[in-house]
């Protein structure tokens, strides 16, 4: 039971981290119709910027400054790259961001080497918050979850309660009409892109210290984030939250399940046959935990093509 | 029209003859590289059927390549190592595996279009990629599955030359079939799928079925490419499912140019060759590839294969004498900028390498030691070192600016001499 509780909490916090990255991605998609392949690269940049800055301005300074830098990178990407190829269509934009993510990953390898760097949480935060059944639960995990929840609330209030939020939502819903009414829609796009990138950068700066910071972190998280936004429904913030939590909890819980499909067959008396077949049937669920999100995504696309909270297709 | 097709035929014949003559011209190492180039070219052609011709952007084509590869490796080891089929026919196994897996995956993926399609293909590829290391029986775990090419039909397939001819035969056959396919009624419908699938549905075609068919055919030829890879390496490892391979085929195809039939094949062959040639010189080849890809996407959406077309259009419009300075200026700018870029990247790569950093840390307080580049020593602290890339960049930008002005002047003169209404819209070219 204790084990289950710890897994559940780890899953929720991993899900909240996924949400921090996927929130920007889904907002950008909803607005510009561009699925930004480089979005997870912003997450990685956030971690590496913070790692570089922490010697100069300390951990908290780095965590605050790094998202700003990443946001500026995002603004530059939108202004000088995406806007130039907008005329060729969405596929072209997707490919361009794909190329940019490639360049970011290779540049990181060039400057920092193709191995994890020593980016750690400060010793003052490396303390247990409470103990569950003998296992210490780190306070930093709770902090990460808290930051993600605070971020969700701020974005939500910003979008629904402020004037800026109204303009942004109208630019998402009917960009041409918003432009005709005198709003600078390209500027709004650039702003949202920059803020989305900064949020991913914040997630990277915070989470990079807890998990590992290496040149593959963008790819590993990026694929998971795509799963989240597709499962949640592209363009839906609430859907991204729901899907992030779902996937975080499912993958985290699956790691501790020491059963295989053969055990399921055993219930109907075909256990021996399944064990003879071997392969997929005797594979433990725990080793499938990286596979489950993708299977879940295919399933969702079949039964609810628009995603959990996406529009009807 | 007749004259054009004859000249195209002549170029193709010369190209094929050159390919057949290569074993007499190249060393063993280069011939091995040529085998890899052929495989990459076939894979890119198969990929282009889906992304260039049908307009369906797949981000996970390594899955079909890998499934074809593993199908073949198990067929080679079947019947106590004797092989399911004679060695020259083994790519058929790869084709069959690719086709079946492609049909299943295609059924899922073609439920949706556009960005969703891209995401589903990515998810399927990642599904296989994350599953493969755990299924040791099928994919051999870390060590992979190794095998042997069995002698058949009087050949022993022991030498690189024989492997080369086997690969060449299959690559030519498959690329020929793919070309033939574009001229069949089904192949023509594929273009319709890209341009306007709603209209196809209105005309009564089964769009989903069509999508699955194209997907499966593309996967089938990818499977052949995977099979050829296995036969050349005599082993298969789950590393083939790595996203890097899917990325490589996308980069290669678009750098080559997806609008032309042979563009992706040429791009893949070129990139594989450069990857082989510069692997001793630089560790940043993937970075160059990525930068080249982004530049192509931004400035030359037709890819490298579109360059001759742009040149001949310029010649037609302005005449050789007037277009020549523009072309030379643009080429000069491109060469200077890439030299400057490469110099800067290589310098940075050496300065940030682990060896260099530990060397600096070993002697704190001293001046930084010089780095070796182009068999010369460059001191990181001296102005001279950094002025080389800066000067190259400045000269390149100057030429680019001149080329741009020249292009604008040509366009201006052209528009003035033409009656209003006939002015041609500005085309890509100088930029």
TrEMBL record, chain A:
GO terms for molecular function: transmembrane transporter activity. Keywords: Amino-acid transport, Cell membrane, Membrane, Transmembrane, Transmembrane helix, Transport. GO terms for biological process: amino acid transport. Pfam families: BPD_transp_2. It is a multi-pass membrane protein. InterPro entries: ABC_transp_permease (IPR001851), BCAA_transport_permease (IPR052157). The chain crosses the membrane at residues 12-37, 57-82, 94-112, 139-159, 180-211, 223-250, 280-303. The keyword Transmembrane helix applies. CDD domains: TM_PBP1_LivH_like. GO terms for cellular component: plasma membrane. Its main location: membrane. It is found in: Cell membrane. PANTHER family: ABC TRANSPORTER ATP-BINDING PROTEIN (PTHR11795:SF442), BRANCHED-CHAIN AMINO ACID TRANSPORT SYSTEM PERMEASE PROTEIN LIVH (PTHR11795). Belongs to the binding-protein-dependent transport system permease family. LivHM subfamily. This is High-affinity branched-chain amino acid transport system permease protein LivH. It comes from Variovorax paradoxus. The gene is livH_25.
């Amino acid at each position: 039971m204790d084990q289950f509780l710890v897994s559940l909490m780890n899953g929720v916090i991993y899900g909240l981290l996924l949400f921090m990255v996927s929130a920007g991605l889904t907002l950008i998609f909803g607005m510009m119709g561009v699925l930004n392949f480089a979005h997870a690269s912003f997450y990685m940049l956030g971690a590496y910027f913070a790692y570089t800055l922490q010697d100069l301005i300390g951990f908290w300074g780095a965590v605050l400054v790094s998202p700003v830098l990443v946001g500026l990178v995002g603004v530059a990407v939108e202004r000088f790259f995406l806007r130039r190829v907008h005329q060729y269509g969405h596929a072209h934009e997707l490919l361009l961001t794909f190329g940019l993510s490639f360049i970011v990953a290779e540049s990181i390898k060039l400057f920092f080497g193709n191995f994890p760097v020593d980016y750690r949480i400060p010793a003052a935060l490396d303390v247990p918050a409470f103990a569950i059944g003998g296992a210490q639960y780190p306070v930093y995990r709770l902090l990460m979850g808290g930051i993600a929840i605070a971020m969700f609330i701020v974005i939500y209030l910003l979008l629904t309660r402020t004037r800026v939020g109204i303009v942004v939502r109208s630019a998402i819903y009917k960009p041409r009409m918003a432009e005709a009414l005198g709003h600078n829609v390209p500027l709004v796009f650039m702003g949202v892109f920059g803020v989305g990138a900064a949020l991913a950068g914040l997630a990277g700066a915070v989470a990079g210290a807890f998990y590992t910071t290496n040149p593959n972190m963008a790819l590993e998280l990026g694929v998971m984030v795509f799963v989240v936004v597709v499962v949640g429904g592209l363009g839906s913030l609430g859907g991204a939250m729901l899907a992030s939590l779902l996937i975080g909890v499912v993958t985290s819980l699956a790691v501790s399940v020491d059963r295989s499909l053969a055990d399921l067959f055993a219930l109907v008396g075909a256990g021996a046959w399944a064990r003879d077949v071997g392969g997929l049937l005797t594979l433990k669920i725990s080793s499938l935990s990286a596979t489950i999100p993708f299977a879940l995504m295919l399933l969702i696309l079949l039964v609810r093509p628009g995603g959990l909270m996406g529009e009807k297709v | 029209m007749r004259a054009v097709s004859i000249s195209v035929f002549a170029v193709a014949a010369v190209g094929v003859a050159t390919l057949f003559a290569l074993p007499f011209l190249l060393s063993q190492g280069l011939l091995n590289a040529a085998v890899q180039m052929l495989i990459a070219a076939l894979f890119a052609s198969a990929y282009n059927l889906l992304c260039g011709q049908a307009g369906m952007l797949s981000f996970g084509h390594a899955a079909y390549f890998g499934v074809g590869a593993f199908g073949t490796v198990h067929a080679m080891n079947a019947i106590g190592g004797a092989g399911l089929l004679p060695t020259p026919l083994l790519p058929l196994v790869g084709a069959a595996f690719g086709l079946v897996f492609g049909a299943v995956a295609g059924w899922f993926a073609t439920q949706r279009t556009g960005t969703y399609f891209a995401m589903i293909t990515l998810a399927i590829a990642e599904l296989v990629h994350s599953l493969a290391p755990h299924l040791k029986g099928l994919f051999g775990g870390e060590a992979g599955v190794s095998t042997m090419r069995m002698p058949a039909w009087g050949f022993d397939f022991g030498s690189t030359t024989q492997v080369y001819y086997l690969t060449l035969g299959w690559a030519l056959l498959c690329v020929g079939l793919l070309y033939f396919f574009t001229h069949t009624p089904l192949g023509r419908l594929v273009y319709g799928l890209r341009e306007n699938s709603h209209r196809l549905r209105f005309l009564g075609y089964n769009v989903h079925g069509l999508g699955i068919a194209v997907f499966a055919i593309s996967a089938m030829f990818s499977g052949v490419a995977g099979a050829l890879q296995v036969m050349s390496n005599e082993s298969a490892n789950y590393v083939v499912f790595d996203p890097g391979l899917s990325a490589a085929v996308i980069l290669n195809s678009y750098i080559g140019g997806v609008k032309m039939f042979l563009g992706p094949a040429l791009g893949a062959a070129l990139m594989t060759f450069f990857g082989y040639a510069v692997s001793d010189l630089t560790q940043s080849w993937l970075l160059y590839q990525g930068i080249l890809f982004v530049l192509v996407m931004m400035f030359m959406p037709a890819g490298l294969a579109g360059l001759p077309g742009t040149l001949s259009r310029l010649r037609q419009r302005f005449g050789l004498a007037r277009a020549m300075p523009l072309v030379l200026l643009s080429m000069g700018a491109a060469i200077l900028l890439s030299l400057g870029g490469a110099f800067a990247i290589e310098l940075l790569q050496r300065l940030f390498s682990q060896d260099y950093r530990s060397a600096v840390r070993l002697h704190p307080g001293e001046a930084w030691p010089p780095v070796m580049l182009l068999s010369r020593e460059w001191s990181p602290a001296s102005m001279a070192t950094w002025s080389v890339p800066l000067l190259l960049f400045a000269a390149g930008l100057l030429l680019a600016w001149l080329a741009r002005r020249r292009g604008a002047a040509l366009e201006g003169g052209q528009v003035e001499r033409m009656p209003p209404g006939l002015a041609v819209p500005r085309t890509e070219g100088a930029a």
